[in-house]
Amino acid sequence: MRILADENVSRSVVALLREAGHEVTAVGESMRGATDIEVLTYAQIEGRLLLTCDKDFGELACRVGLPASSAVVWVRLPQTAPAAEAVVLRAVLESRADWSGHYAVVEMDKIRMRPLRPLTARPAEESGLHRPYPVRLARPEPPWSALAGLT
């Protein structure tokens, strides 16, 4: 699974998902300080599921009319040890194959999913976004590229 982990997703979750074979890009590693719209746009351009603990992404996804090929998963788990949270999230993400096209809310006892559909068809300048959608971002260098000169 191709995942974009927002800055508020713990490093333990990112590490466990990578160990499980998922292709995870962490905003905190490669896009630190990016705005929500830049994060959302990058997820859409790269075809990644956006994993976040920020509830604002659901409204934003609808406001900009995120295409149905994208997915946003809002994690609402109680405060727990990062390692335990990582195990739960891995199990949850691997429990379904139909994330694309949905805004999902993951809670301890349930997963709520809604289709991604724009609330309005307003242009970006009317919707309060700072720049037109989509924003083209430079692709981050893969983490292993830094090791190329060490061999």
Write the layout of secondary structure elements.
Elements: E1 2-5, H1 11-19, E2 23-26, H2 27-30, H3 36-46, E3 49-52, H4 56-64, E4 71-75, H5 82-94, E5 102-106, E6 111-115, H6 124-127
Parallel strand pairs: 1-2, 1-3, 3-4, 4-5
Antiparallel strand pairs: 5-6
Helix pairs in contact: 1-5
Kindly state the number of beta strands. 6
Number of helices: 6
pLDDT average, as an integer?
77
- Basic shape: globular
| Strand order in the sheet with the most strands | 2-1-3-4-5-6
Main beta-sheet strand count, sense and barrel state: 6 strands, mixed
Spans with pLDDT under 50 lasting ≥5 residues? 119-151
Which percent range describes the beta-strand content?
A: 15-25%
Classify the helix fraction into a percent range.
Answer: 25-40%
Indicate the structural class. alpha/beta
Task: Using the CA coordinates, give the radius of gyration.
Answer: 16 Å
What is the total domain count?
1
Order of helices and strands: EHEHHEHEHEEH
Keywords:
single chain; 151 residues; alpha/beta; six-stranded mixed beta sheet; 6 helices; 6 strands; 33% helix; globular; disordered C terminus
Give a structural overview.
The protein has 151 residues and is α/β, with parallel strands linked by helices. It has one domain (2-137). The protein contains 6 helices and 6 strands. It has helices at 11-19, 27-30, 36-46, 56-64, 82-94, 124-127, and strands spanning 2-5, 23-26, 49-52, 71-75, 102-106, 111-115. Helix 1 crosses helix 5 (82-94). The radius of gyration is 16 Å and the shape is globular. The two termini are 29 Å apart. Residues 119-151 have low confidence and may be disordered.
